[in-house]
Amino acid sequence: MKKIALFVAMAFIFLAVNTQLGSAKIPSTPHMQQAQHEAKTFTGTVMKNGDSFVLSDAANKTSYGLDDAQKASQYEGKKVKVTGTVDTASNMIHVESIQEVA
User: Taking the chain (102 residues) in consecutive chunks of 10 residues, what is each chunk's mean pLDDT?
Assistant: First the structure.
């Protein structure tokens, strides 16, 4: 009888643990959320803003921070096409590539 009671108790514990593990969600980080967005192309002029760089789009009256200052610094003052993903919370483009446009 003790073995049956012990078996039943262990079965309940096993089910309770598996139910909790199955319903547990892995918290998403901003980086993981960003990975879900597709890369887009933006055009504008690279401008220095303090120690960082921004892409200024005069046509749409918009500007975005550029997260890769090393790449952006090469194009300061030039009209460019930036490919990357936008973090809407910080209005920052995570730069994949920058190309000068004519």
Answer: 60 53 46 63 95 92 94 96 94 96 87
Going by the DSSP 8-state scheme, the letter that residue 22 receives in this structure is H
pLDDT of residue 58: 87
Helix (H) and strand (E) counts in the chain: 3, 5
> What was the pLDDT predicted at 12?
55
Q: Which two tokens stand for residue 68?
A: 């890769």
Listed in sequence order, the residues at least 6 apart from 93 whose beta carbon sits closer than 8 Å to its beta carbon are: 42, 55, 64, 65, 66, 67, 82, 84, 85, 86, 87
- CA dist., res. 99 & res. 55, Å (int): 12
Beta carbons of 41 and 67 less than 8 angstroms apart:
no
